[in-house]
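thread: overnight batch results

M.L. [08:02]
morning all. the overnight job finished for the chain we discussed friday. pasting input first so we're all looking at the same thing
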Amino acid sequence: MKMKIALIGCGEVGDCYAREWVAGGHVIVGIGELRQDAEMQARAASHGSVLHAEAGPWLAEADIVVSAVFGHAALEVAKQALPHLRKDAAYADFTTASSGDMRAAAEVAAQLGVPFTDVAIMGAIALLGARTPLLCAGTGAPAVAAFTAGCGAPAQAIDGEAGDAVRLKLLRSILTKGMESLAVECLVAAESMGLRASLYEVLSDMDRTPLTTFVDSFVRSHVLHAPRRLAEVREAREQLVEAGLQPLVLDGVERLFARTTQGIEAARAAGSFNVPDSVADRLAWLTPLARQS
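M.L. [08:03]
and the structure it wrote out:
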């Protein structure tokens, strides 16, 4: 089914998806953009569309309105745009707005009877373009996921409210950006010591374990072995310093292990250190420690 799409924001994200949607036979009925220069005019023309400086009645032409603005502007843009949508249209927010702003925008949409979808782009557009996986949450999530999947984007609708998709994206970022930082710090050290190839060999066992199983095993064993591992972290830190390297990430790792160690020592002193061996129970024990710091 050919869709009429209104696009708000035609930067890297908006332009990328607009090209894919037009190639798929859909129509961009208008593009809302603060930029009205010749370059942006040409970009709109390349999508067979025209520019609008602000939200207005032109949005009523669309079956789906897609916001691809900067995250800090997403809520205000939604407030301006939503009153112009038809009741049978959908609003999809592809921005990096906070979960709170997503929920606030969804509340405005609900008051107007418009389905709202929080769409989290789960990767780098620069690498995968419109084939970057999408996570959709909110009242319009199934329909938006079906539409984007039909255009070639791996899309998944999840249970939950608007804001949950961006929350999951940011939780994923904690793990991926943390792994990225540790990889940089570790491999720089390995390279400087002439040990990078050998390091890959001793890491090969990790390739045989699914990632979620691997991280769950960390959580379960962390609560028991943090004191011993803290000593190892400190030895690793000293090795980096001796090599003339600055252990930025490892400093944070040391603080986390020290926090858990202090919690274990306090619980043992109180005679209350008895945590069942499950991920849920051990996360429940660790959470108050995180809140105290």
